[in-house]
Amino acid sequence: MPILQVEHLKKHYEVYTEKVRALDDVSFTVEAGEFVAITGTSGSGKSTLMHLIGGVDTPTDGKVFVDGVDVFAQTRSQLAVYRRRKVGLIYQFYNLIPMLNARENILLPLELDRKVPDDDKLRSILKLLGLTEKVSCYPNHLSGGQQQRVAIARALMTEPSLLLADEPTGNLDSKNSDEIIRLLRDSNQKLGQTILIVTHDEKVAAKTDRVIEIDDGKIVRDERLV
């Protein structure tokens, strides 16, 4: 069974008197261990798709299954657990807590879930992401690339079924952008992490295994690169 199944997903809303079809009957599946890019121009619906998969928005119609579980058949409290345990969310602007150091930011989702962190796993992720020497640093003492690494580490620590990255390189220069994609690739290959990355950058998309392109809320391309 695929780790992700998106079935006839629709998201419509009204702007004044006009109906906008942000997503219009989108269907696809993702197997465990895939590294997939969701591409498209601004307003194409790619971020809307990511928000629906992440359980932070609800569809007009259609279904999303993660590990065989119907995401939108869950209660509000079940959805909160889903967001903490099943998906790891990485955003363009990091979303770190300024008064917490790197280690505290990374472990925050586990603390909210009242779970004891696995120290060996933490050390492994810190080493993978080059953060071993930065665990005591606060966000304002970290570069943009380092803050994004902390955000990735925070997402990986919960061992999510899916890692969802929404324009994770959009706020970085080309050097740091390349480094973040390399680190995501490493987590995909070394940790077996399934990753969906929203990007408008074709160079970033070309470094993944598969590209799904969305235009006007519809899939217009689904191509495997490897």
Please tell me about this protein's structure.
The protein has a six-stranded mixed sheet, sandwiched between helices. It has a four-stranded antiparallel sheet with strand order 2-1-4-5, with helices on one face. The protein is built from seven helices and ten strands. It is of the alpha/beta class. It has one domain (4-95, 153-224): Rossmann fold (3-Layer(aba) Sandwich), CATH 3.40.50.300. The protein starts with a strand and ends with a strand. The protein is globular.
List keywords for this structure.
226 residues, alpha/beta, Rossmann fold, 6-stranded mixed beta sheet, 4-stranded antiparallel beta sheet, 7 helices, 10 strands, globular
At the fourth CATH level, what is the homologous superfamily?
Answer: P-loop containing nucleotide triphosphate hydrolases
| Average of the residue pLDDT scores | 90
The CATH class is Alpha Beta
Strand order of the largest sheet: 6-7-8-3-9-10
Distance between the termini: 21 Å
List the helices and strands and how they pair.
Elements: E1 4-15, E2 18-30, E3 35-39, H1 46-53, E4 61-66, E5 69-70, H2 76-85, E6 87-91, H3 102-112, H4 119-128, H5 144-157, E7 162-166, H6 174-190, E8 195-198, H7 202-205, E9 210-215, E10 218-224
Helix pairs in contact: 3-5, 5-6
Brief overview:
This protein is of the alpha/beta class and 226 residues long. The protein has helices spanning 46-53, 76-85, 102-112, 119-128, 144-157, 174-190, 202-205; strands at 4-15, 18-30, 35-39, 61-66, 69-70, 87-91, 162-166, 195-198, 210-215, 218-224.
